[in-house]
Amino acid sequence: MLKEISKAIRLLFLMVVMLGLVYPLLMTGWGKLFFAEQANGSIILKDGKAVGSELIGQDFTRAGYFHGRPSLAGDQGYDGTASSASNLGPTSQKLIAMIGERAEQIRQENKLGEKALIPSDLVTASGSGLDPHITPAAAKIQVARVAEARGISEDEVTALVEKSIEDPQLGFLGEKRINVLRLNLALDGVL
């Protein structure tokens, strides 16, 4: 019996070393070698300074910028250390009230009619609360506000929106989307 316990302990030690040290180090090395940008967080630099990640949404509130999805991650939203959804169900009165308030705010900010339809990604948070993308429809309803705030034509802003549309991954996974940080940096002339 002692012989069997000894074998089990040696196998456990081998597995801990292989799967707990060697494999993670190997995968990290391969990731940094072949996918350096992604392995380092897909950080976007402006004048050599990090301004954000392509993978994590940010809270843009100024009129001259496109606004992303709402976030319930953390107390202030967009907190990468507190990534989570609200867990409010579709019949939750609190969720219905939040969506109504957000829709009204978007209508006011963008000078839309009282009955204007708002894309769902502008009034609902994603499962992680950190989604950096919006749909092209969500960007298009913000064009007039952004153009007015920046003092440029709507055609110029629309052209940037069209240029920023990303196709579904592998051509069929997901839907067309726009990375809000990249679009806002394009507006600033950085990208």
Write the layout of secondary structure elements.
Blueprint: H1 2-34, H2 36-39, E1 43-46, E2 49-53, H3 93-109, E3 133-134, H4 136-140, H5 143-150, H6 154-164, E4 165-166, E5 177-179, H7 180-187
Antiparallel strand pairs: 1-2, 3-5, 4-5
Helix pairs in contact: 5-6, 6-7
Q: How would you explain this protein's 3D organization?
A:
The protein has 191 residues and is mainly alpha-helical. It has 2 domains: 1-40; 42-187, no CATH class. It has helices at 2-34, 36-39, 93-109, 136-140, 143-150, 154-164, 180-187; strands spanning 43-46, 49-53, 133-134, 165-166, 177-179. The strands form 2 sheets. A 3-stranded antiparallel beta sheet has the order 3-5-4. Strand 1 (43-46) and strand 2 form a beta hairpin. Helix 5 (143-150) packs across helix 6 and helix 6 (154-164) crosses helix 7. The longest helix has 33 residues, at 2-34. It is elongated and about 80 Å long. The mean pLDDT is 91.
Features:
7 helices, three-stranded antiparallel β-sheet, 2 domains, mainly alpha, two-stranded antiparallel sheet, single chain, 191 residues, 8% strand
Give the structure's gist in a few sentences.
The chain has 191 residues and is mostly helical.
Radius of gyration: 22 Å
Q: Unreliable runs, pLDDT <50, ≥5 residues? A: none
- Total domain modules: 2
How many H/I helices?
7
Shape: elongated
Portion of residues within helices: 40-55%
Task: Note the gap between the termini.
Answer: 67 Å
Strand order of the largest sheet: 3-5-4
Order of helices and strands: HHEEHEHHHEEH
Mean pLDDT: 91
Number of strands: 5
Query: What amount of the residues lies in strands?
Result: 5-15%
- Helix and strand composition category: mainly alpha
